[in-house]
Amino acid sequence: MSIAVIPARGGSKRIPRKNIRSFCGKPIIAYSIDVALRSGLFSSVIVSTDDDEIADVARSFGADVPFMRPAQLADDFTGTGPVLMHALTHFQEQGQKVDAICCIYATSPFTIVEDLTRGHDALETAPAAFTVTNFAAPPFWALKQDDQGRMAMLEPEYLDVRSQDLPELFHDTGQIYWGTSEFFLNGNDIQAGRAVGIQIPRYRTQDIDNMDDWARAEIMYRVLKGAGQL
Predict the structure, then answer these.
(1) pTM of the entire structure?
(2) What confidence tens digit (pLDDT) does each residue in 121-137 have?
(3) Long-range contacts made by residues 86-93, C-beta under 8 angstroms, separation at least 24?
(4) How many whole angstroms separate alpha carbon 142 and alpha carbon 207?
């Protein structure tokens, strides 16, 4: 039994009501629910929320909301791990054994079924997997700025190193996180070296933390949808 858990608390501050705000015509959480349902990978697609309106929207798009998340797991400081453990504990208390769990963030409109499938398949050889993409420019060439606005390399030893001689580095896309139940219940860090990286192209990644991000993401979505990429 595999389940999908979409965390969606109601208290977003930088973008109020972020998880159910309209994105290209429908609540943004609907995209995560839809891709999880279409994948056919899950016995249940769950939205974990503390908010009645979000729960109603989630149900209207086909997700299950079998519990309301307690307030202590819905503040600004609660990470994803405790939310997933709360969901797994709920199923255990119902006498249902969950083998694997996939966290899909509510603001992940660029996730496609293939991403979920590749993450699921990765669990055959690893206890966890998550989506990553490569940096647009080598992080080794990062610059820092002092109080007078002057720029200097963060790591000057790489000043004359060619890009092709530097290792390719990746970052978490903040979209999906697969893992066995044991992996998450034991409190493992998904970035600690045991998880497989599911590489996706940069053009299908976008943090959505403020309204500029939101506007850019809508433009990207319309272009990719029109090109048949979503």
Answers:
(1) 0.92
(2) 999 999 999 999 999 99
(3) 86/48, 87/3, 87/5, 87/46, 87/48, 88/181, 88/184, 88/185, 90/66, 91/3
(4) 20
